[in-house]
Model the fold of this input.
Amino acid sequence: MSDSSSQSPGSRSPMQDLPPSAKLVFKTLEYEGDLTQAQLTEETLLPSRTVRYALTRLEDEQFITSRISFADARQRVYSLTNPNSDTSANTQLTPTS
Done:
């Protein structure tokens, strides 16, 4: 049985220190693209307060950014700050000839 406290603090990534709800919100944004808090609440099935906390943590760690929605200025749209390079590599167009 390994003890996670034996790891040095510098060996952990900031994502590992986030709560599971923040990781779920991050993955949802990764798969679904830009979403509002209400859409994230619906997609993740988490309580609104939990999603709001997760978004705050993710913004504090600079994993996501937010902007005002053009469709409804009362809402903010959240997106990843640096989309995963693995997914962008999979979507590149390659010649078929």
